[in-house]
């Protein structure tokens, strides 16, 4: 599997410099577009995490920006004549609940009880764009594809639950990833 985007630096609309209309609770909430190519044809479901390993020296842990599970590949509109058959469109995080209700999004680090943020699902259970406080950070998008949905994951799952389900799913998920930079 290959994961790619039309950029290496996250565009302003999806990150720290996002306009006020692209934010909720001060956080950028419009997810960026990306492509998933060369997926194992036997797989039927996509799952991903988008995290910031460079946040570890800043806050002591890897910041979770977005998690998705059990997205049926068949629910995505794609054109086999396109060089990028599977495309995740911009703002997919906010559109997905109404478009593909069987897919679920997990909590991000904004859901931490230590931050004291509002419990607004638009902020704590959707995409949170990069906002590095100290310097440019490298963010990692990791995508897995499985033949079967991962059982027991509901809206608001935690990332560790997703990783446990992937490890225990009884198959070797197809996977790929990419790094992108978020500007300080």
UniProtKB/TrEMBL annotation:
Transmembrane helix among keywords: no
Keywords: Protein kinase inhibitor
Entry-linked Pfam families: PBP
Entry-linked InterPro entries: PEBP, PEBP-like_sf, YbhB_YbcL/LppC-like
GO molecular function: protein kinase inhibitor activity
Family: Belongs to the UPF0098 family.
Protein name: YbhB/YbcL family Raf kinase inhibitor-like protein
Record lineage: Bacteria, Bacillati, Actinomycetota, Actinomycetes, Bifidobacteriales
